[in-house]
Amino acid sequence: MEVGGSAPLPCHHEMVVGEITRSCQLVEKLRSIVLPPRGGEASRWPELQLVGDLFDEVLQSYRVSVSMLLHPCSCLNAGEPAVHTGSEWSRAADEAKSGEERPERTRKINYATDSRKELVQKSGATPTLMHSNGHQWLKPGKRNTTNVDIARGETNSWTTITEAPHFDGHQWRKYGEKHISKSQFPKTYYKCSSFKEQGCLATKTIQQKDGSHDPASYVVKYNFHHTCKPIKSNYSQHAENTSQQGSLLDLFPNNTASTITSPRRKPSDQCSSSSASSMLIDLNLTIQFRG
DNA sequence: GGCATTTGACCTAT
DNA sequence: ATAGGTCAAATGCC
Question: CA A178: distance to chain centroid?
Fold first, then answer.
């Protein structure tokens, strides 16, 4: 990844782009160490595919960040109803890299209600803008986002579209489900599982897109960022106890990940957010380099 | 018994 | 009046 574009960049922007580029290279290197070659063993284990997808999304996020630095005005101009996919963002980054002229891009951000903003202020939480893994952005809510808003960190909610709505690295507790008018599928409501213990205000809603089948895609709307600390799970404890070899593959004994279970998983909920997110956290904690 | 989920009731915004 | 979001009692699972 190289710095491109016609307009000269501020000095600190060049430094940031340089750092992001270096991070990108490090992630690529880490991926090659942690994961088997593409199309190999990873295709047999969905969990490894998930890890690979996350690496891809991290890399994509870096590219998008560079693109935004190179073209800040076009990236932050909200209010356009069109929807851009993650691949489009990636392509934008590639165009920036090659120095080609690119069409104007917009970021789509939804806002939480005013009452929620008050809640954040009372709790002392400091909402910050968070890009969501390069997923698809939806049109904004009632109010257009301005650069000033983003700089102030006044964006409290954001929306993504994904095929794995539960895999986001956090533990959630379902607190409601609602049938939405003119929608084929109900919307489910989740709070951060640390809501009681740590007062974390993060919530999310998940709704399957109408007409989406095999694979189903879901609209996931997040409200507020997590203020909670990660919870150490049983599985990370297991990884600590067996980390003598320090291999990611050690996390899947007997060549299967089915041994990863949530304490209270129901048979009908094999893809529960708790178990999946625990696994992601554990993977982050136990990746080690071989001597 | 403890905890998570379900689901109808209630509240708020439009 | 209606839709969307949240609450909380009931229910089920471990």
Answer: 24
Q: How far apart are the C-alpha atoms of A76 and A43, rounded to whole Å? A: 37
Footprint of strand B on the protein (CB under 7 A): A 113-115, 142, 173-178, 188, 193, 264, 266, 268-269, 272-274
Q: What is the rounded CA–CA span in Å between residue A81 and residue A79?
A: 6
Compute the distance between CA of residue A95 and CA of residue A5 in angstroms, rounded to an integer: 9
- Asked whether residue A262 is domain-assigned, the answer is yes
Is the CB of residue A16 less than 8 Å from the CB of residue A62?
no
CA of A32 to C1' of C3 (A): 49
Q: Can you give the pTM of this predicted structure?
A: 0.45
CATH number at residue A183: 2.20.25.80
Helix (H) or strand (E) holding A191: strand A187-192
- pLDDT digits 0-9 by tens, A209-243: 888 777 778 888 888 777 776 544 444 444 444 43
Identify whether A215 is preceded by a cis peptide bond (ω within 30 of 0). Answer: yes
Is A53 domain-assigned? yes
Which nucleotides on strand B sit less than 7 A from a protein beta carbon?
2-9, 12-14
